[in-house]
Design a protein that fits this description.
Largest sheet: 9 strands, antiparallel
Number of strands: 16
């Protein structure tokens, strides 16, 4: 036995470096506008565009290697060429007291991001950047009690399910996500505060599917992850 490896599959590709890898370059522009509403409220909108050259990703190919007697699939960092990104980000923060002076001390906030990206060297329709979702949104509320030293807040985040092509051999599916968290704090004195946090209020299972297509043969791997509620309680004392 000479200790050399035999053949492998795309889903179990070896990993290796790339001495010919070039640095990624990008050129972008942002245009934003903010408008204040009262003392503590505002809305903002930002448009963004970016062009990436020599995009860095991971490619999977079958090739001759020194550690095997036959060709093996190898995953290497690679320059994929050009990619384009553009989109809009809208954000709003509203204090009810800016509209009605005797209203409770409630602050509402929201954000929505709409984006588009395209990797020119990949076929569509899933030839987008993995970190550029078609949309994502956040909503939140904060309440400061007038009668008690109590502060309460809640935040929700949504992201959609999405297919993303990693290379010509592999594409990945991410399930939609919804996160909801709450927190509350009670200030006994200026130096003593008790806070409670509740994360992942709704138990959820997220999934990922990796598909590999080689010579018209499709291999699919699925992974599921369950996230449970997390409760924390903290007492802060300043000495």
């Amino acid at each position: 036995m000479n200790g050399l490896c035999g053949p492998n599959a795309a889903e179990t590709a070896d990993r290796a470096g790339n001495p010919n890898l070039q640095a990624e370059r990008s050129l972008g522009a942002n245009l934003s506008y903010e408008h204040g509403i009262g003392a503590d409220s505002q809305i903002s909108i930002e448009f963004f565009v970016r062009e990436i050259d020599r995009l860095i990703g991971t490619d999977i190919k079958r090739e001759d290697v020194s550690w095997a007697t036959t060709q093996r699939f190898v995953a290497r960092p690679t320059n994929f060429g050009r990619a384009n990104v553009f989109g809009v980000d809208m954000e709003a923060q509203l204090s009810l007291r800016d509209i009605w002076q005797t209203a409770p001390r409630v602050e509402l906030r929201g954000n929505i991001n709409l984006g588009y990206s395209k990797i020119n060297s990949f076929p569509g329709p899933d030839n987008r950047l993995s970190n550029q979702l078609p949309w994502q949104t956040k909503l939140g509320i904060t309440y400061d009690a007038k009668e008690w030293p109590l502060r309460f807040s809640a935040d929700a985040n949504w992201t959609p399910s999405d297919w993303v092509r990693s290379n010509l051999t592999q594409r990945v599916f991410y399930t939609r996500k919804f996160d909801f968290a709450m927190s509350a704090s009670w200030k006994f004195t200026k130096d003593v505060r008790l806070s409670a946090n509740l994360d992942n209020l709704f138990d959820r299972t997220t999934g990922r599917v990796d598909e590999y297509l080689v010579n018209q043969e499709l291999v699919s791997l699925q992974e599921n992850k369950t996230t449970f509620r997390k409760v924390s309680l903290r007492l802060e004392i300043k000495l």
